[in-house]
């Protein structure tokens, strides 16, 4: 058992189940501190996500407290500046899970070098995907560019793996703080209280994610192939924000779905998980996608600049009922039906 304190860098991993980095920290240390780095600039135009993040932090703090682990929140300007200061201390070991976006993976490499130079123990663990990005390639070693062959191979690769032994978080001996000048989760909330309706709809926690999955599998998944096409019915899972914040691991979703008798609805739904895997692969092999068009033929798209129309679109006041309904649903609930997202996006 490592006598130094174990630090777990919390990113989009708000769960105790299948959280490999946190599990490793509690396995190796009697005392563990979880820390979240709040970078204000990342949330400048994500007001609804601020609400979700606030609730996620508060709920996860309670879950961790039962395991004798404190969660500390720090507001920072830059990951680099924060970690360059942190590594001057050598009284810790650090753990985190991968975030499969080019900038995050690039920063992992920078931090690895820094930690190695300072001889600080660390471990980077698998994040919230079925497969690691570099595991899924064509026979010639190049990345897939088309979804169907990608998913056929990725699904086969995942199902044929020997499943790892299920590990759980170990309760720590006593709670401890490590960082000074922390902030409270409440300071992250948007300034205007326009989100009160969210409270009635969402439960941003691991428990909430598990409940949403259970309701979906029990009541909706069988008809998902057709049900997802009709915005006027509750035919989708609404798991997207839970997955985004890591309140549920996609392996958990896969395993629970596979307990069902095989049907078209389950196959279609798991293919949506496949699309998420595919897009993680694409943005890392073709990183220009995160800021530019995947296809260059769209670079000179003739956008019309009309601020009056744009404002009407944002407020759901275009006069086109399905477009306006989608935008108002988004404002009221923080979520929009996928088929309507396509319509609203095309309309823009």
Keywords:
348 residues; 14 helices; alpha/beta
Q: What does this protein structure show overall?
A:
The chain has about 350 residues and is an alpha/beta fold. The chain has 14 helices and five strands. It has a five-stranded parallel β-sheet with strand order 3-2-1-4-5, sandwiched between helices. α2 links the parallel β2 (about 30-40) and β3.
- Structural class, judged by helices and strands? alpha/beta
Bin the helical content: 40-55%
SSE succession: EHEHEHEHEHHHHHHHHHH
Unreliable spans are: none
> If strands are numbered along the chain, what order do they take across the biggest sheet?
3-2-1-4-5
The geometry reads as globular
What's the total number of strands?
5
Brief write-up:
By secondary structure, this protein is of the alpha/beta class.
């Amino acid at each position: 058992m490592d006598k130094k304190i174990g630090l777990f860098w919390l990113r989009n991993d708000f769960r105790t189940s299948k959280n490999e980095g946190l599990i490793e920290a509690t396995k190796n240390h009697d005392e563990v501190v979880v820390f979240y780095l709040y970078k204000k600039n990342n949330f400048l135009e994500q007001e609804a996500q601020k609400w979700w993040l606030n609730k996620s932090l508060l709920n996860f703090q309670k879950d961790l407290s039962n395991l004798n682990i404190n969660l500390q929140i720090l507001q920072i300007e830059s990951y680099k500046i924060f970690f360059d200061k942190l590594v001057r201390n050598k009284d810790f070991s650090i753990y985190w899970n991968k975030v499969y976006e080019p900038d995050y993976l690039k920063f992992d490499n920078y931090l690895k070098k820094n930690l190695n130079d300072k001889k600080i123990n660390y471990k980077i663990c698998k994040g919230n995907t079925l497969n690691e990005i570099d595991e899924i390639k064509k026979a010639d070693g190049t990345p897939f560019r088309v979804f169907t062959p990608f998913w056929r191979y990725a699904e086969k690769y995942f199902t044929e793996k020997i499943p790892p032994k299920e590990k759980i978080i170990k309760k720590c001996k006593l709670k401890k703080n490590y960082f000074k000048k922390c902030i409270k989760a409440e300071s992250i909330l948007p300034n205007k209280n326009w989100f009160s309706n969210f409270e009635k709809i969402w439960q941003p926690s691991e428990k909430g994610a598990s409940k949403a999955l259970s309701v979906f599998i029990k009541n909706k998944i069988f008809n998902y192939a057709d049900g997802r096409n009709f915005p006027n019915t509750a035919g989708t899972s609404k798991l997207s924000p839970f997955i985004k914040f890591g309140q549920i691991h996609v392996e958990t979703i896969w395993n629970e779905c596979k307990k069902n008798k095989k049907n078209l609805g389950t196959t279609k739904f798991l293919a949506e998980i496949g699309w998420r895997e595919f897009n993680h692969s694409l943005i890392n092999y073709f990183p220009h996608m995160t800021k530019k068009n995947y296809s260059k033929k769209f670079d000179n798209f003739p956008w019309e600049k009309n601020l009056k129309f744009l404002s009407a679109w944002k407020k759901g006041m275009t006069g086109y009922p399905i477009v306006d309904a989608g935008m108002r649903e988004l404002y009221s609930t923080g979520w929009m039906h996928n088929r309507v997202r396509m319509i609203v996006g095309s309309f823009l």
